[in-house]
Amino acid sequence: MFNYVLLRLVQASERVRSEGLAQVAHDLVHFERQAVPVEKDLRGMEAEPRPAWTEDGTFAEVTEELLDNAEVVYPFQNRRRKARYYLGKGWGGYALLKGRTVLGDIWYAPVPQDTSSPCHPDVSWLGIRPEGKSVYTFDMFIDPEERGNNTAFGLQRATLQDLRTKGFEKAYGFYWADNIPALWMHRSLRWKPLARRRSDRFFFYRRSRPAADRPARSTSRTS
């Protein structure tokens, strides 16, 4: 528990440095922010062999060996700590590297076929009902200096292709409706939007409800 809290504190500090206090505050404290769950049928994607890691930079799977390599540079050390935490949970990840520098990474959690087994908490939070051999993708991070260069698109596309080669049939994820770049990226990759959710969050506490589930307004009046 202590390591998790420390991880989140370091994450918040580095996010403020890279994204600004206003954006971080909006992510941690909001009311009725709309989340858009999405699904992607991977069966229609052409499986391609994963490129090898070269000095010119490429797409690679995140492993303990990669994290132990002192020559691999994370611009934000929180991402290395978070990678170890995710791997310890049994989740997987991919990174896009230029030379030995990590430009960005993305993570995935296989959805257990046994519904009694634990899954990534976002799946139930978003009201997603996975079908077939599926996987939940989450927490994509791109170095701020690389944003706007189609880096996120390339990383996510390569990730989906490699998940297809692992035998997954469907991928799930989500983006915030007010994040316009994320909206266009998901459209470009032909993710299918699912029913939206209204999210309330206050730091570590969060809940979501169907976006269409709004309480009826009272029509009573007092004189």
Can you walk through the features of this model?
This protein is an alpha+beta fold and 223 residues long. 32% of the residues lie in helices and 28% in strands. The protein is built from seven helices and nine strands. Strands 1, 2, 3, 4, 5, 6, 7, 8 and 9 form a nine-stranded mixed sheet that branches. Helix 1 packs across helix 2 and helix 1 packs antiparallel against helix 4. The longest helix is centred in the first third of the chain and has 18 residues, at 2-19. The relative contact order is 0.20. Mean pLDDT is 83; it is low at 215-223.
Query: What is the element string, with H for helices and E for strands?
Result: HHEEHHEEHEHEHEEE
User: What distance lies between the first and last C-alpha atoms, to the nearest angstrom?
Assistant: 54 Å
Q: How would you classify the helix and strand content by structural class?
A: alpha+beta
Helicity, in percent?
25-40%
Backbone shape:
globular
What is the element layout, followed by pairings?
Blueprint: H1 2-19, H2 21-28, E1 29-41, E2 59-61, H3 64-68, H4 77-88, E3 92-98, E4 101-110, H5 121-125, E5 134-142, H6 151-165, E6 170-176, H7 180-188, E7 192-193, E8 197-202, E9 205-210
Parallel strand pairs: 5-6
Antiparallel strand pairs: 1-6, 1-7, 1-8, 2-3, 3-4, 4-5, 8-9
Helix pairs in contact: 1-2, 1-4
